[in-house]
């Protein structure tokens, strides 16, 4: 995953893989080529790189993987609610 060891994410490898597989499956339902597994890997790597030393990496990595599991087109009237909907779906 973008050259970073899974253990550096502070999620055990199995949990990380399970969350990632779930997120990829959800993204595949949207048929949006800009939101794919490569997008998730880039977001995870960027979050890890930007994370402050005192950051809860378990929460950050889960959030990075799940942030787009509800993907609403940019011109859709409910677009502003996509983050809340993704958080509910992640739960």
Proportion of beta-strand residues: under 5%
Beta-strand segment tally: 0
User: Level of helix content?
Assistant: 40-55%
Q: Which structural class fits the helix and strand makeup?
A: mainly alpha
N-to-C span: 24 Å
Q: Give the overall shape.
A: globular
Number of helical segments with 4 or more residues = 4
Could you give the order of the helices and strands? HHHH
* Largest sheet properties: none
Radius of gyration from CA coordinates: 13 Å
Description of the molecule:
The protein is 54% helix and 0% strand. With 91 residues, it is mostly helical. α1 (13-28) runs parallel beside α3 (57-66) and α2 packs antiparallel against α3 (57-66). It starts with 12 loop residues before the first helix and ends with a helix. The model is unreliable at 1-8 (pLDDT under 50).
List the helices and strands and how they pair.
Blueprint lengths: L12 H16 L8 H14 L6 H10 L15 H9 L1
At a glance:
This protein is mainly alpha-helical and 91 residues long. The protein contains 4 helices and no strands.
Supply database-style keywords.
91 residues, mainly alpha
């Amino acid at each position: 995953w973008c050259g970073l060891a899974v253990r550096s994410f502070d999620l055990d490898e199995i949990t990380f893989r399970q969350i990632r597989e779930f997120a990829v499956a959800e993204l595949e339902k949207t048929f949006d080529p800009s939101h794919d597994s490569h997008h998730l890997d880039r977001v995870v790597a960027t979050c890890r790189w930007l994370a402050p030393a005192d950051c809860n990496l378990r929460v950050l990595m889960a959030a990075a993987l799940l942030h787009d599991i509800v993907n609403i087109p940019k011109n859709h009237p409910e677009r502003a609610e996509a983050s809340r909907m993704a958080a509910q779906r992640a739960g």
